[in-house]
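Entry:
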Amino acid sequence: MHREGLFENLIVTVIASLILVVMGVVYFIATLLIVKFSSGLIGYSPDANWVVLSSAVIVAGIMIGSAIKKA
């Protein structure tokens, strides 16, 4: 009987993890588009690698800040 609860918890954990990964990817893509649009708006034309790097740093900073705020 106790094993059934563990199996259900495992399924819920896997589903929640997949949803969080998908949401993270969507959030990263949105940030990527914002950074690319903003840099074009002010007249810069950075290399795609720099746009990806800056988006990754922004998303990582927001995730760390969110995790610290909730603790």
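Residues 23-71 form one domain.
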